[in-house]
Amino acid sequence: MSRKQECFFLDSSILISYFFEIFKDKIERLWGIKTKYHMPCYISSSVKEECVGKIRDILDFIGASILSLRMHIAGEKTKTQHEIILMEPDILTIELLFGDLFRELTDKAKSEGKEPPEIEQSLLRNLEYSLIDFLEQKFKEHASLPMEELENFLAECLDKYLYIEEAFNIQMRNLSQEAIIAPDQQLVEKVCKVGLPAKDSKHVASVIQYASSNNVPTVFVSVDYKHILSFQVELYDNFKLQVSDPIYALHHLRNEDAFKELVTSRKRRVSSAILTSVPKV
Amino acid sequence: MSLSAVSQSTFSSALRFGLSSVEPVEEVYEKKIGRFKLIHKITRLVPKQKYSYRDYTAIFLEDVLQGMTIIPKFDPEAVHKMMMQKSLEAVEKLGLKERIDRLEELRESTSLSDYAEAHDILIDIAKELSTSMSREDESRYFVKKFFGSNFALSYFSDLMRGSQTYNKFLNLMEYELRLMRGYVRAAMQRSIDYAMKIHKARRVELRPMVNASDAYRTASMTLKTYVEICNSEKVEDLFEQKMLDKNKLDEQEFKRLFSNYLIKLDYLRDKLFERKPELFTSKVDFTLPINNMWKNMATLTISS
Q: How many C-beta atoms lie closer than 10 Å to residue A132's C-beta?
């Protein structure tokens, strides 16, 4: 019987970084290891789902924002015009309407008792920049524009989205292979208790399940420090799963015993520090 | 009826016709050259079945309606009749009626040249419809649909992805059919049996892809028809311009039909990718403004 090969599982952050060409050095290093050692790279079903979902959510966000903008512009303009025409000064109307959209986002978060949604705000900022850039280009050619230009902008966003989605899926196929895993809900909850968000817990639980049922050295590779990598020690301590940045991934695979020792000694140090810090009665 | 809806049923007829079983038919050409009569005998492979646009459309629409657990509001027969009527009206609007009528006439014929003419007309229709709407027009069409609805934009992006995939399929089929003709013609030089063997082998090879496309096409039309029925007051309103309200749908049924649509679409994409990966985009230029916006937005979702 052939021995199952050690492998990497990739996080959505790796696939997105790879495709959109960010963290280039790290990703190229990972790609180099994969090629040099013929290292199998897998993605769990949940990671695949998350990648597709993330880009899709952005599309829906763009759609909803442009729809709202269009309604507001039409509302403002129909007071004075029969046929809605956009002139260059209307860019300032758009500025105010974007301001309203930002306020809506903040108010909504406030009413739900949440912090201002930073990601949505940044998404909106990007959309605002692109729309104004698009309209400025059009105003260079025409003094006035029909309302349909908003449709054209959104149509271009949609068109480019479909190209991106298609290319993303092809790159995902080239970089990794899907391991169809339905993670055990109890395990997901246990991972969640360590402090990971629900979505990431699902990815991590899938890898734990794969590694234990196949009994192969496995490293979950990510660049998400905030939600995954900062729990590296806890995840190893509780589930014997190594999670790592691409630059350390191969070292983790080859030196798991050393990492185990490091985690244990750190744990010992932490518990003795706690003991010494307890005030004597 | 929308262009995409009617074109899908027409494409299917053309392709099935092209892929139907063949039989050898001997054709005799006589030519007088002075006192001599030149007799030239040619044996060709021609399709056995004589399909027509109408037959295919009727069967296709029956399949579409059967795909729904329940057909809300209207009598299924009335829906079928109306869709059939709208489909034929659309054919007229698109300037295809004459060609479709000609196909109907050719249906009764047994002449080899008539078979060839019918085949050419169908391929011609398929080609024309597949190129009738540019990608730009199509994205504008779906954005208009989005503005006239309360669905998320991603719903329409999935419909457009389907339509674009179907175009890839048509391009590939056109290429494969021409290739098949070439192979069969070359094989005829050797023997008819050999040509038939080649034809059969090619058809068997293409069958999984054609089956995948049929399944996609039916799932797609079933989904669109369901949304139309739920949003129409009377049968006559089907596929007419209207506001599409997702709250009028039965959530479970819509989810089932939508998920079935996505499964069939992904399967078709996989089959096409296996056959010709070059049909798919693998590189994106992020220096273009909108692509750059996408890059900036997508990378925001990564926490580091």
A: 14
Distance (Å) from the alpha carbon of A272 to chain B's nearest alpha carbon: 31
| ipTM metric | 0.88
Q: Which amino acid is at B103?
A: L
Q: Which of B142, B146, B297 sits opposite A126 (nearest CB)?
A: B297
Query: Is A179 within a domain?
Result: no
Which of B294, B296, B300 is the closest to A164 by Cβ?
Answer: B294
Q: Which residues of A touch B284 (CB under 8 A)?
A: 160, 163-164, 167
Same domain, A192 and A265: yes
Count of structural domains within chain A? 2
For residue A119, count other CB atoms closer than 10 A to its CB. 14
Give average pLDDT by consecutive 10-residue segment, chain B, 304 residues: 49 50 60 66 58 74 88 88 85 79 73 65 70 87 95 97 90 80 80 81 84 89 94 91 95 96 95 93 92 94 76
Q: Do A159 and B136 touch (CB under 8 A)?
A: yes
Query: What are the chain A neighbours of B294 within 8 Å (beta carbons)?
Result: 55, 58, 157, 160-161, 164
Which of A150, A172, A194 corresponds to the end of one domain? A172
Q: What is the least distance, in Å, from the CA of A61 to any CA of chain B? A: 9
**Stated pTM of the model:** 0.85
Domain that holds residue A273: 7-48+184-277
Query: Which residue type sits at B48?
Result: K
Q: Is residue A178 part of a domain?
A: no
The two most distant CA atoms of chain A are separated, in Å, by 83
Q: Give the containing element (helix H, strand E) for A132.
A: helix A118-141
